[in-house]
Amino acid sequence: MGDFYQNGIITTLHNLSSRSIDEMEAELLQFSKIRPMSLVLPCLYSELEGPALDKIVTELAKVRYLNEIVIGLDRASEEQYKHAIQFFSRLPQKHRILWNDGPRLQEVNSVLQNQGLAPKELGKGCNVWYCLGYILAQGTSASVALHDCDILTYDRNLLARLIYPVANPSFNYQFCKGYYARVADSKMNGRVTRLLVTPLLRALKKILGSLDYLEYLDSYRYPLAGEFSFRVDVINDIRIPSDWGLEIGVLSEVNRNYSTNRLCQVDIADRYDHKHQNLSVDDAQAGLSKMSIDISKGIFRKLATNGVVFSTETFRSIKATYYRIALDFIETYRNDAIINGLALDIHNEEKAVELFAENVLKAGLHFLDNPMETPFIPSWNRVQSAVPDIFASLCSAVDDDYQEFA
């Protein structure tokens, strides 16, 4: 059970009473008459063969307040797409699968490439972007939730709590970020948030001072959570990063577009576990190594747009300050783990911090060498301006795939 403490400048909605899911869903069903709700599920085909997604679909089949479920399917052949149609067929809600590797959606992507508007990097960001475009094209939803498809501890409470703040007509929130304790199997997880993001933000505050953007990011309890919800208007102007900086990038975008009293975070789970990325010490283009570089670059890039001037010496100072603060955090997490009877491997924690410290500097130097790099996918407002019939093409591609192969 959480406490009621409000930290930082973002409203925190806690889980104080273990409220009945039936009671909350009954409210959401009433809200859905005013604000129809959609869910976005970005997934890889491989996740259909894993243990998490089958349980997620079983839980979602019990949800009555959703108007639509949009599934973004990556890395799937024709036969695998057909299997995905069968896999998700038990969902009673209206649902559609975006077969991102299929010829029809690839043709849509080619049209955007010719205009210089297509995502430049494949991955979750690209998948989410097309799903959100499809929801805009449908024009039937007022509130949208998004969560990952590898959540091993999933139950439908997570979705209800996640979408409630943007579905309740008496609330004024445009965007809501989910958070949870990253504890499972008697271990403390969430290394990138614990050992990179939080100590990096504290290091940047120490060197640059208490900037509004740093205070804003530091207000989120779990900034890298893949679960968030928003009013549909948010989609129009938001630019989604195509790399591992997706979650930080989305937080930066809503901060740019909305005042902080329109943003919130909500406790959505007592426990949360999903598949874990490798540290990838020897490969900066994979795993947590690439993730740490992309996230660091995203933060530096945003600070630069706010007027912060960086130099090689600045990034060396940031690296040194980060490293010291992160090592101190390891001691804090160790003590927190011990009092709760959890396991924490100090050696592996320090290995992660050493890698992240090197990558903070790499990210900084990369930024200095490529100051104009923009990994953001254009907003749908811009895309529709350049290609007025893009929504019709997107809907036709998705629906024609379904009609042919269902």
Automatic annotation (TrEMBL):
GO terms for molecular function: glycosyltransferase activity. Its EC number is 2.4.1.266. SUPFAM superfamilies: Nucleotide-diphospho-sugar transferases. Keywords: Glycosyltransferase, Transferase. This is Glucosyl-3-phosphoglycerate synthase. It comes from Gimesia algae.
